[in-house]
Amino acid sequence: MDTLTLDEAMSELESAEDFLNYFGIEYEPAVVHVNRLHILQRFHNYLGKATLPDVEDARRLMYTTLLQQAYQDFVNSDAQTEKVFKVFHMHEPQVKFVPVSAITVRKAGT
């Protein structure tokens, strides 16, 4: 039986539990049950910010570290506090900047 490359394995993983098991990360099922999508999205966000090495073993180590970090974010906090998804930012005050040069004064009759 052929061993899958990291990229091949990643394409076959589906659930948060699949990812955690594949990378050998111990986890509490209750934490993952409540936060599975948040954990995977946070992992995705971390990967997007990381500079990934070309060497597969180094990349596997980085994936493991980032997934562990994503999982720990929700062990130590919760989805509402972490605000991974846009929906959690919808009710926050929106800050708008208007430069002084964009402000005009119109006089009556002009």
Structure, explained:
This protein has 110 residues and is mostly helical. The chain has one domain (6-102). Helix content is 54%, strand content 0%. The chain contains 5 helices and no strands. The chain has helices spanning 6-12, 16-22, 29-49, 56-75, 79-82. It is elongated and about 80 Å long.
The share of residues in extended strands comes to: under 5%
Q: Tell me the Rg in angstroms.
A: 22 Å
**Tally of DSSP β-strands:** 0
The gross shape turns out to be elongated
Helix content: 40-55%
Order of helices and strands: HHHHH
Question: Mean pLDDT, as a whole number?
Answer: 82
Distance between the termini: 82 Å
Query: Which runs of at least 5 residues are low in confidence (pLDDT < 50)?
Result: none
Total number of distinct structural domains: 1
Q: What's the tally of helices?
A: 5
Biggest pleated sheet: none
Class from secondary-structure proportions: mainly alpha
Architecture blueprint of SSEs:
Layout: H1 6-12, H2 16-22, H3 29-49, H4 56-75, H5 79-82
Task: Fill in the keyword field for this structure.
110 residues, elongated, single chain, 5 helices
Brief rundown of the structure:
54% of the residues lie in helices and 0% in strands.
